[in-house]
Write a structure and sequence with these properties.
By secondary structure, the protein is of the alpha+beta class. The chain has one domain. The chain contains two helices and five strands, in the order E-E-H-E-E-H-E. The protein has a five-stranded antiparallel β-sheet. A hairpin with a 5-residue loop joins strand 1 and strand 2. The protein is globular and about 35 Å long.
Length: 102
């Protein structure tokens, strides 16, 4: 099962780790992981577009999704800059999911 760590590109914080996002990691892609996170945290409906990770540089609102190794430690504080820096160094960016309010 892929394990994703989701970073909000506006705040720069880690907002989700699918290691324990409403249960264990699932057989899903980056887009589905973001949709699952938003479904748990938002009441508003959004549209999503799956893009290359470099699309995060265009100032769009969305999430950078990283693929974490199986043995990567669970994220405990997604706002700690040392934790964020380590995750960026150790995990592979696999997608940018742009979001828009409906």
């Amino acid at each position: 099962m892929p394990r994703y760590i989701i970073l909000d590109n506006v705040t720069g914080s880690i907002v989700a780790d699918t290691l324990d996002l409403d249960g264990p990691p699932r057989e899903e892609g980056p887009l589905e992981a973001v949709e699952r996170f938003d479904a748990l945290t938002l009441e508003d409906k959004r549209s999503y577009a799956l893009e290359h990770p470099s699309a995060a540089l265009n100032e769009s609102v969305g999430y950078i999704v990283y693929l974490a190794p199986d043995d990567y430690p669970k994220i405990k504080d997604g706002r700690d800059q040392d934790v964020i820096d380590a995750m960026i160094a150790d995990c592979e960016p696999v997608a940018f999911v742009e979001v828009r309010e409906l």
